[in-house]
Amino acid sequence: MRAAAGCVVGLSAAGRPRCGFTWSRAGHIKRTIVLFSDFERACYNDTVATKGTATRRQILLRAADLASAEGLEGLSIGRLSEALGMSKSGLFAHFGSKEELQLAVLETARDLFAAEVLAPAAAEPPGLSRLVAVVQGWLRHVEHPVFRGGCFFAAAAAEWDDRPGRVRDRVVAITRQWFSELETGLLEAAARGHLRADSDAAQLAFELHAFLHAANLAYQLHGDAQVFARARSAIRRVLLPLTHEHHTHVLDDLA
Fold first, then answer.
1. How much of the chain exceeds pLDDT 70, in percent?
2. Could you tell me which of 136, 131, 133, 121 has the C-alpha nearest to residue 182?
3. Around Cβ 82, how many Cβ atoms within 10 Å?
C-alpha cells in the first residue's frame, strides 16, 4: 500500500510498519528507512555488542603477545595498529589511550593465566593435590607458551618494577595475588594434614616461586627445556621432607 507521506510501507507479522521507501517525483527510490520493532532492535544491539566484544578480545590477545616479547611500554596504539592492520581510530574507539590499552592487556593476561592454570587446579581436591596442580599448570603454561615472551607477568614485573603509575600498581597487585595463591595452597595443605603443621608457608611460597621464575628465565634465555624437569625436581625436594608419609605419592607427578 502507498502511505500518505509518499512512502510504500510494509507491515510486520504483528502489523507494525517495517520499512518504507521514499520516492522522487520521477518515481525512483531515493532512500530506504528501516523501522525496527523493539524486539528486533534488541536483537540487533546484542549482535553488535557480541561482535564488538569478540573483536576487542582478539585485539587484546594480539596485544598481549606483542607485549610479552616487546614490553608493555613498547605497546602503543600505533604499534598495535601496524601489527593488526587496523586503523588507529578504530583502536582508539576501543581503548582511548596507551595506558588504557596497557591496563586492558594486563587484565587479559591475568584472565588467561587464571583459565589455563588456576581453573584446572581448582578441580583437584583441596590441599597438596591442588597445590601440585597449580605448580604443574604454571610450568606447562610456560613450557608450552601462550605468549612468545613466556610468563607474561615475569616480563612485566621486570619491566615495571621501578616505574610508578597505574600500570605498575596493577602489575604489583596481580603478582601479589599469585604469591597469595601459592601461600594459601600451602596453608591449606598443612591444615588438612598433608604437610607438617609447622611448615613456613610464606617461605615455601617464596622458594617455589623462585624455582618457577628461574625455569621461565632459563628457558626464555637459553631455550633449554630441561629446566622444567629441574624445577619440578627442586620443588619436590623442598616439599618432600615436609609431607606426611601417607601423602608423599602426590609428589610423584613432580618426579
1. 80
2. 131
3. 12
